[in-house]
Amino acid sequence: PAAARQPVVAPKPRVPVTSAPPPPAALSPRAGGDTKGGKAGGDGLSADACLIAKWGGVWALEGPRRTRYHVDIPTPGCDQRSAEVEGDSLATFPKAHGGGPGYALGAKGSKVACLRRACAGPGLRKPALVEAPTPLQAPPNGWGLGPAPGWMEGSPLRFNSVARKAFAAGGSYEGMPPGQPLLLVFGGASVNDMLRNWALHVQRLALPYVVTCMDESLFTLAGNHGMPAAIFRGGSGEEASAGPGVVTTRWKYFRMDPRAFMTMGMLKVRFFLAFLRAGFDILCADLDVLWLRDPRPWVTGQVATSALISFADIVVSTDVTSDAAENDRASWGLAQELNTGMLLLRSSPGAAVVCEAWVDRMKQEMVSIEKLPKNMLQWWSNDQTFFNEVHMRATLDGFANPKATDAARRERAAEHLRSIDRRPARTAALDAALKRLGDMIAAGPAKAGELEDVRGLQFRSRIGCDGQHHSFAIGTFPYELFASGHTFFSQSLQLRRGFSPVAVHTTFQFCDTAEFAWGKRSRLRERLLWLVDPDSYYERVGPASEPQPEPTELEYSGFLHLDGALLDMSSWPRPYMRSEASAAIKVEGSRSFIDETLARKSDVHTMRDGPARHLLLDSFQRRLIHDALALARALRRTLVLPRWTCYVDKLWAGSDNIIGMGFMYPGSQDAPFLPFACPMDH
What we know:
The protein is of the alpha/beta class.
């Protein structure tokens, strides 16, 4: 990404930046003389050149043909002052010099180009920075100091009686100390079972939480179940202009409706802003995240390895699948896709600026979504897509590093962190944490392992709605403890390593429809984490069951359970020769490939890993399940499905090189787990 190529320059906080500075003198042929291509980038660029941006890249357009030059090293905020290219229309602007030498502007040329105005015309949106900056709305108590008395009255949210009682004097949430997070979850009434399951896990841990409701039905339902809830008030004014306060869809499951899902994303982040501006630090979770242990020791720095992330503006979960990305060299997963299913936001200017930019980017995307067919299911983007974009487009301060051996780099990071929360107690805790890191660095090899385990941070900056630079520190949660669906349900990584995670996100799963998230519920049931089934789901009616007298066979509704391993190869003869293609549905390819595949026979005990082996061995399992289903039907019983064994992992698309990764999800091959007990939806 362009942001990753930024020169090492310290962001200058709170320096006003206007969206359209007066154009400088014409960009000379030598303005980009330090470009990579040899010939000076920007050769012949005229004084009326202007800026466009797309996915974090910035270009300068020049001349009547609107030829584009790539701004290779944009200055902070350059993309925010550029017109955003809509759709796929970037290709309508031809590359200067055919994309060859002279097309890319180097550091000097980029700096001069970024002083230009934004372009205008068809297919271009106005720049993210507006002409008239607006103040950044701060909490009444100030950033990081917690909510002020009576904060509910000034909130754009309406709270149910359960929430009002919890936050009132003498309530269970009264006096939450600054830095202790308030848990937020969001959803609509169509997934109320998921919500009740989420709440039951949180209530077991006695964590403070609020349900942020996407519709009135859920707001009512939450009250009926004794859950504190909030919904936008509606009406007129700023909040009304920000977008709808509720989400409507023709489907029961928001995720399958592109309009509803993006509307929900915007509404979700507006909820975040409402609580941040009230003074709360918030720990936000998707509805399919289950909290199994108290996360606060990691959020507040009580766990030594999380000492730094406890001071960050933003901490987010990842889809990391192995230890390979859990180190400073791999930026603790920050260079990969970040998963906003678990997201800590501090009440700080940096977190607020990121959330504001996040909402604005989703508003832009809604323009494209509104053009989609009404019956279209799913869309390529969601709110997480644009969080990642906002994060990666922010200017990276590569010099600041609290774990660096260079004292100047550590002090730069300390300045960032001190600006987030200036309370004396917080500053003292930060200084103590930084001193411990300094002592580890001074100890050299003796403390190298301990230092390596402390999770690092990145420092970035964006220009806010107030036209000023705001820096923010961002880190990630430990992937083992804040687990993705792949590490928990497929790899069973935590089970194999002998501990329980803090949270589980039911990602990397299948079988969801517009009606319900069937695959998620199935996985949670398999791990005994689905707590909302009625007792009747587990009741049997049959011989020796209640009530008496004993029911007739026509009234039976019991269960059939298979005893022992579903597939036990230890008793099979050696060798056990089978055609490798015997379990395939279809064999495709050239004539010679088909003939060779159909003729190949192998010993099932020693045949090579791959889809053919999986299909062949799974065919034995399928036959047993087929017979068990028939027996269950004959006996009027429900089959309790056994554990399947899978010999390859499963993906959604061919773009991920699963074959080159030993038939495991890319990244997870670093801790091989095949064969594995795979979830039913797998």
